[in-house]
Amino acid sequence: xxxxxxxxxxxxxxxxxxxxxxxxxxxxxxxxxxxxxxxxxxxxxxxxxxxxxxxxxxxxxxxxxxxxxxxxxxxxxxxxxxxxxxxxxxxxxxxxxxxxxxxxxxxxx
Amino acid sequence: xxxxxxxxxxxxxxxxxxxxxxxxxxxxxxxxxxxxxxxxxxxxxxxxxxxxxxxxxxxxxxxxxxxxxxxxxxxxxxxxxxxxxxxxxxxxxxxxxxxxxxxxxxxxxxxxxxxxxxxxxxxxxxxxxxxxxxxxxxxxxxxxxxxxxxxxxxxxxxxxxxxxxxxxxxxxxxxxxxxxxxxxxxxxxxxxxxxxxxxxxxxxxxxxxxxxxxxxxxxxxxxxxxxxxxxxxxxxxxxxxxxxxxxxxxxxxxxxxxxxxxxxxxxxxxxxxxxxxxxxxxxxxxxxxxxxxxxxxxxxxxxxxxxxxxxxxxxxxxxxxxxxxxxxxxxxxxxxxxxxxxxxxxxxxxxxxxxxxxxxxxxxxxxxxxxxxxxxxxxxxxxxxxxxxxxxxxxxxxxxxxxxxxxxxxxxxxxx
Lengths: 109, 416
Ligand SMILES: Cc1cc2nc3c(=O)[nH]c(=O)nc-3n(C[C@H](O)[C@H](O)[C@H](O)COP(=O)(O)OP(=O)(O)OC[C@H]3O[C@@H](n4cnc5c(N)ncnc54)[C@H](O)[C@@H]3O)c2cc1C
Ligand SMILES: [Zn+2]
Fold this sequence. Notes:
The structure holds 2 protein chains of 2 kinds.
Chain A: E1 3-5, E2 12-14, E3 19-23, H1 29-32, H2 39-46, E4 55-61, E5 69-75, E6 81-86, E7 107-108
Parallel strand pairs in A: 6-7
Antiparallel strand pairs in A: 1-2, 3-4, 4-5, 5-6
Chain B: H1 6-14, E1 35-38, H2 42-55, E2 60-63, E3 79-80, H3 87-101, H4 103-107, E4 118-122, H5 125-141, E5 146-148, H6 150-156, E6 172-176, E7 180-181, H7 184-197, E8 201-203, E9 208-214, E10 217-223, E11 226-229, E12 232-235, H8 241-247, E13 255-264, E14 274-277, E15 282-286, E16 292-302, H9 310-323, E17 332-342, E18 349-352, E19 358-362, H10 372-385, H11 399-402
Parallel strand pairs in B: 1-2, 1-12, 2-8, 4-14, 12-19
Antiparallel strand pairs in B: 3-7, 4-6, 5-6, 9-10, 10-11, 13-16, 13-17, 14-15, 15-16, 18-19
Helix pairs in contact in B: 2-7, 2-10, 3-10
Bound molecules: flavin-adenine dinucleotide and zinc ion.
Zinc ion binds next to loops of chain A.
């Protein structure tokens, strides 16, 4: 069971108190250039995923807490969180396999 | 390789079963093959079998990082059905179902196909309507499938809770009389033996670590047992698909998540059909040993660990307890997970790729055991002729570019 801490309100809980929102940092082409979106760009946005075995940047929502979305970096093989960071932040620079933060839950940013 | 029959059984019994030979060779890789198949799950092995049998291509290696059938094929709950909504799906699942009917004879290996009947419960008004639509679609396609009433459900399934006031009352069911189960390991073993018999090399404990592409054409794979050359390579690695396609520089519309299942302690026979309850996300059948085999929806998040989370399991069981109160006192014996490959429209990908000679067969997600024979059959044809088999064509990877989906996510809200 995943233990998660919300970087917005600071609450800590297991995965049932949060909800997963899939891969993060995917840019919607329509909001950059609504006139000229190629089929390829639209496909990539909707369907193509990195789906890495290892470090994954993803979105979660603090469903039973403050209700805000935030980002997390998690290893999909060990299931260890490496960092939680704000929804407006770019992914932190983390070395693959870097040690997790306190109590294995990753540090807050 | 010896054929199995009542006579070989008698002969071996007289000898205290000490004379049985190996069912397949333990092959070491040659330097080159016509076709390399990566992944010895049901789909990879069936593909190898039909390449040899239907297309006479026997210079084939199936390369497997662990043991054959040790992936999702050996972890699934073995539900077989073909009552899908879309014509494209009906075609491939029906082909698979038909091949399953005669597979024990064809392979000379008992796959324990058990067409015991399968019910998809309707527990909301909406579900009743969408399943009725499904029944009509199946009939139009020539698949035997019909709606049955709550009374008929109760008659076939005495342990089901029909009392008034339940949260999700049973309003009817979509019934496929020839749906059922088969022995998962036996399907992998039977195809492995059949392929091996025809000269296919099955190379276990051999992980593919690289795919070599030159001028847009595949020419070899790197493995833990060295480089193996081939002008045709097929990736059939389910939840690990992205890792393999990354090696060839392809990008895929796939995400890997965990799907779990569990079995109870064995009890006397209480259930002789397979039941799926899509609204409450659970399904249940009883094995020949008497265990109740239970499964549900996938875990939410991307996962390669082959471990599921407890809350997902709890969700499945909680939901089923109301519909089958008898299971509330059962002890659960085992629980496990497999990593399944999910596509956006919940349909598989059987396709050529942008790299010449490189093929993929993946995206079966939570429901690809039932399709193994059909998938192997059309994929072998696709590889042999270097063009999509007509039944495979709708499942090509271009559909994500063209927006030509085979949308089954509405028809089946639950893993199966
Ligand atoms: C819990 C659970 C329940 C399910 N229930 C059902 C059901 O009731 N009915 C149904 O129809 N389907 C069901 N499924 C889905 C079904 O199991 C799969 O769709 C199907 O088995 C996929 O078969 P496959 O041959 O594609 O993959 P797999 O059987 O997973 O085989 C892929 C193989 O590739 C190998 N591999 C991976 N990477 C490499 C590498 N780098 N080099 C070499 N080899 C590699 C793996 O070791 C593995 O053996 C279920 C799945 C799970 C997990
Ligand atoms: Zn919060």
